[in-house]
Amino acid sequence: MLVLTRKLNESIIIGSGIEVKIARINGNQVRIGITAPKNIPVYRKEIAPLFGQAEKVNKKQTPQNLVTSFNR
Asked: What's the pTM value of the predicted model, to 2 decimals?
């Protein structure tokens, strides 16, 4: 794992199309902004498995399918 130190409004670049920016720091909570191409899904780690399961079951994703999968 690469560990970096960033200050408010500083960014890191991943590959050629993903930027992660520190948007706000509030105590021990950090808000980040992620800019990525639309074909790269970005999920919080704790919900990523739900979306992975939904993609296997549903060939074509719709907002309703994702909500249904998330609510299971």
From this structure: 0.64
